[in-house]
Amino acid sequence: MDVKVLELGPGRARLVVGGEGHTFMNALVEELLLDPGVDVAKYVIKFQFADPELLVTTHEGREPVGAIRDACQRVVGYCDELLADLESWQ
Fold it and tell me: Which domains does the chain possess?
């Protein structure tokens, strides 16, 4: 995954997330929106084969990169739980 920072400031981040599509971006945005410090989390894919652009704005001193990192860790945790459950069926 290649991440390019387009804008980064207090309470706002715009990133291009290379090589990802709707599946990962939907999961990430949904998880970001569960964070009470996140105001806006959305992404756009401008063209069919373009990389998605993620926008995150935060409030109450929450750093957007920290919010993104925490959301990614929670998504990974869900995947680990699913894998563990699937392994118990074998």
Answer: 2-88 (3.30.1360.10)
Distance CA 82, CA 52 (A): 26
With CA atoms as reference, report the closest residue to 8 among 60, 55, 71, 73: 55
Predicted confidence (pLDDT) per residue in 1-57, tens digit: 899 999 999 999 999 999 999 999 999 999 999 999 999 999 999 998 899 999 999
Beta bridge mates, 56 = 13, 41
Is residue 27 classed as helix, strand or coil in its secondary structure?
A: helix
Output 6-10 pairs: Cβ under 8 A, ≥24 positions apart. 6/53, 8/64, 8/65, 10/63
